[in-house]
Amino acid sequence: MDLLDSIGQGLANALTLQNLLFALVGCLIGTALGILPGIGSTAGIAILLPITFTMEPTSAIIMLAAIFYGTSYGGTITSVLLNIPGEGETAITSLDGYQLTKKGRGGAALTIAGVGSFVGGTTATILLIVAAQPLSQLGLLVGPPEFFGLVIVGIALLVGLVGKSIAAGLISAAIGMLIAMVGIDPVQGLPRFTFGSAHLLDGISIVPVLVGVFGLGELLHVSANSITRPKAPKLRELVPTREEWRRSAPAIGRGTIFGSLIGIIPGVTATISSLIAYSSERRMKKHGHELGTGAIEGVAAPETANNAHANAAFVPLFTLGIPASPAIAVLMGAFLQNGITPGPALFQSEPLLVWTVIASLLVGNVLLLVLNVPLVGLWTRLLAIPFPVLCAFILVFIMVGSYAVNRSVTDLIITAVFGVVGLIFRRTGLPVAPLVLTLVLGPLLEQTLRQSLQISNGDFSIFFTRPMALVLIAVAILIVITSAATKRKRPIAEVILPTPTPTSTTQER
Amino acid sequence: MRFTRPLAVAAAAALAMTAVGCASLSRPTDSGEASESTDWPTGPITMIVAFDAGGGSDIGARLLATALEDELGVPIVVENRPGAGGQVGYTALANAAPDGSTFGLTTIPGLIVSALDESRGAEYDVDSFAQSALQVIDPMAIAVTPDSDIQSIEDLVAASEAGELTATTTGIGTAEHIALLQFNEAAGTDIRPVHFADGAAPATTAFLGGNVDILLSNVGDIMPTLENGGARAVGVLAEERSIFVPDAGTSYEAGIEVMIGSSRGYVFPDGTPQDVVDRMSDAIGAVLEDEAFQEQMANAGLQPAYMDAAEYEAYWHEQADSIGSVLELIREEG
């Protein structure tokens, strides 16, 4: 078969000592960058890009691609163990991941995350191999109106994230939306809430807000309360239990589907995949109510989804020549620098290169699995560091990370301010998840709405005459109605008071 | 940011003293350069790039920085200061010490829009910089779907009279938006913009998905889409045809006198000694002459377009005038 032949050759080429070595180096660098909050894959690839000018193109691209998907593995470690997510997608993981660490299951959560990422990444890559062309057409069906529908679905999922108090959830969501409004309005070009500062014209970056609310907020809260810190788990506690595997498997499956499908849509970040995968776990009958209190599904689903997304994001790059995310855009720069234009023509003009790079995605996912799962024990030793020392290190990492995004002192101030906001959230019991959701989706909601109306020249029927947009909006309405109905059926006491299961109050802490 | 000014002055003073100190200590340099009045460059030069590392502007600047290191014999440190469409970096550049130790990449129309649009509250204006040299003019290309009936700019004008057309931009006041307004004004068309403030990738996606009729983009940025057969260029808004899309006619050929694109050049903060500005200008000119360098730029989709300090300054002010009048239009549309 032609396809098997091509991928076979690609695999053989990806497994040469040199290419294997570069994939390994990329995975290591990616993991290291992921551990540092703020320095995401985009900055990592951009910084290393000039080094690759002298390298052989295939090796260069293999290494940069490995950095790209390696960062999402690294980010998981600090989110789960220390509650310091570096990017939006890992912020979702930390919601349950950190609660698991508090219960002494942090090692198991990391193992599950590693396996889930492997499954998600590998499945998405196989999809890329067998069905890249039709998938890319699917991605193109998503124009601004459909994108708007997708965002509305995301916003509707908010009802699953609000926690025990709807009012508290909506307050959190509104704050997130308000933060998202800061900056130059995307359509009129007028500054909003910038208070005359050029640094706010671009809006408030997500990373300083997240490391502030999650990382710094947690540090302040823990320092001020003398809460017992999670202990480093013993070696045998690193292995997930049979029960944990059994519960993770379906979550990994769903995460793979969400990540792979959403990943092929250009312009949608992995955070959205994570959010949707996580929210859908919350809506599951059996264990949904446990999410937020340290449920293994809450780590398995978003971690799988974001890695599936990262690999699926290569579909639009290889088939349409469209970089689906900022990190992929920098990666595309690497292709262009080497005189290679990503796109459908590449499969004809440079088949070996394309198939080698695709095969290297498979190889890289295996490498990350064997690198990270055995290292889980080492990572969890982080928790054995005396808290005052660890606290100081974390503070340094937080500040370096939020500075690194834009190399701007303003971001440090934003981090500090949101550290206090995070403390207030924890003290008052406001949930953090809705804030993350609206912070990520807010700008997209506004842009896609207004782009759609620019296309239709102000006619709102564009949302109802296009089938996919209509279906997505209907799904959103359905989610809200069913959630409202199930909420009402439950006895009031259960809605207001924490359920007897591992108390839901822990989620807000 | 108030406290930065005294700091900058102090830094400038300190640097100036160091420079004087070094000048008196260093031995006279060889033949040609000995005649120059100052001993520039004496140490590393910072190149402020107001965009993220890895983008089109950054790649061109980094290529030049590497070549300039050989030409000038001192390290050139590229410092990315992204934010607010370049405004954050331009502010840093305008406030830098005017002693030749800092220069930076500026793009037109981006810089001029940020300086002229009062709502942006920029701390600098079009006169805050000393123009040194232009490196690139990346003209704006107009592209349609490959199966479209539109073959030329003339066809486009005719089609826009027959029906409503939409075109992508990367946001209000961007090169694409200004190009579209200037084109509409000059050709008497009414092509409506659809703004994709989050960048060229979503704009391209919407175009490929058939949601927007026309893809507007710099030649350098649009090349991958053209090479992949996703779009066909019908024209460029320039006086001369682009070496990258030689088949696309120019706006001037169609009798529409609009010339716009993204032009990237290098400036010092205003007040930098003119001989420093000129020597940098000559150095950039020498680099751009080099064939190997031209090939590197071509790989990155960039067409060299050198202007020396005087030519670039004239071009700068000419652009400021024409962009100023378009901004009036945007304000009226408001």
TrEMBL record, chain A:
<feature type="transmembrane region" description="Helical">
    <location>
        <begin position="165"/>
        <end position="184"/>
    </location>
</feature>
<dbReference type="InterPro" id="IPR002823">
    <property type="entry name" value="DUF112_TM"/>
</dbReference>
<feature type="transmembrane region" description="Helical">
    <location>
        <begin position="412"/>
        <end position="440"/>
    </location>
</feature>
<feature type="transmembrane region" description="Helical">
    <location>
        <begin position="352"/>
        <end position="371"/>
    </location>
</feature>
<dbReference type="Pfam" id="PF01970">
    <property type="entry name" value="TctA"/>
</dbReference>
<feature type="transmembrane region" description="Helical">
    <location>
        <begin position="20"/>
        <end position="49"/>
    </location>
</feature>
<keyword id="KW-0472">Membrane</keyword>
<feature type="domain" description="DUF112">
    <location>
        <begin position="20"/>
        <end position="437"/>
    </location>
</feature>
<protein>
    <recommendedName>
        <fullName>DUF112 domain-containing protein</fullName>
    </recommendedName>
</protein>
<feature type="transmembrane region" description="Helical">
    <location>
        <begin position="106"/>
        <end position="131"/>
    </location>
</feature>
<feature type="transmembrane region" description="Helical">
    <location>
        <begin position="460"/>
        <end position="481"/>
    </location>
</feature>
<keyword id="KW-0812">Transmembrane</keyword>
<feature type="transmembrane region" description="Helical">
    <location>
        <begin position="138"/>
        <end position="159"/>
    </location>
</feature>
<feature type="transmembrane region" description="Helical">
    <location>
        <begin position="383"/>
        <end position="405"/>
    </location>
</feature>
<feature type="transmembrane region" description="Helical">
    <location>
        <begin position="61"/>
        <end position="86"/>
    </location>
</feature>
<feature type="transmembrane region" description="Helical">
    <location>
        <begin position="257"/>
        <end position="278"/>
    </location>
</feature>
<keyword id="KW-1133">Transmembrane helix</keyword>
<feature type="transmembrane region" description="Helical">
    <location>
        <begin position="196"/>
        <end position="216"/>
    </location>
</feature>
Automatic annotation (TrEMBL), chain B:
<comment type="similarity">
    <text>Belongs to the UPF0065 (bug) family.</text>
</comment>
<feature type="signal peptide">
    <location>
        <begin position="1"/>
        <end position="22"/>
    </location>
</feature>
<dbReference type="InterPro" id="IPR005064">
    <property type="entry name" value="BUG"/>
</dbReference>
<dbReference type="Pfam" id="PF03401">
    <property type="entry name" value="TctC"/>
</dbReference>
<keyword id="KW-0732">Signal</keyword>
<dbReference type="InterPro" id="IPR042100">
    <property type="entry name" value="Bug_dom1"/>
</dbReference>
<protein>
    <recommendedName>
        <fullName>Tripartite-type tricarboxylate transporter, receptor component TctC</fullName>
    </recommendedName>
</protein>
